[in-house]
Amino acid sequence: MSAPEHAQDDEPGAGEPDPVVRAYLGGIDRTLIAKNLRLTPEQRLLQLMALQRMAAELRRAGREGSRWSCSACADRSSAPTS
To answer: What is the pTM of this model?
Structure first.
C-alpha cells in the first residue's frame, strides 16, 4: 500500500522531508521533546510557572541594574577630572 495522497512531506512514510523542514531538523533537540512529552500535564505547568518566575526575576534584575548603571554614570559625569 502506498502513502495517502494527502500526506504532508514531513509526515512519516511520505518520503524525503520538505527542504524547509530538512533545514530546521538540525537545530531541533529531539531528546528534549521526548523528555517533555514524558511529563504529566501538571509537571509541564509547574515547569512553565518556574520559567515565568525566572523571567520575572530577570526583568526585575535588569531594571535594577539599569538604574544602578544610570546613577553610576551620573556620578562619574559629575566627578572632577584632572
So the answer is: 0.49
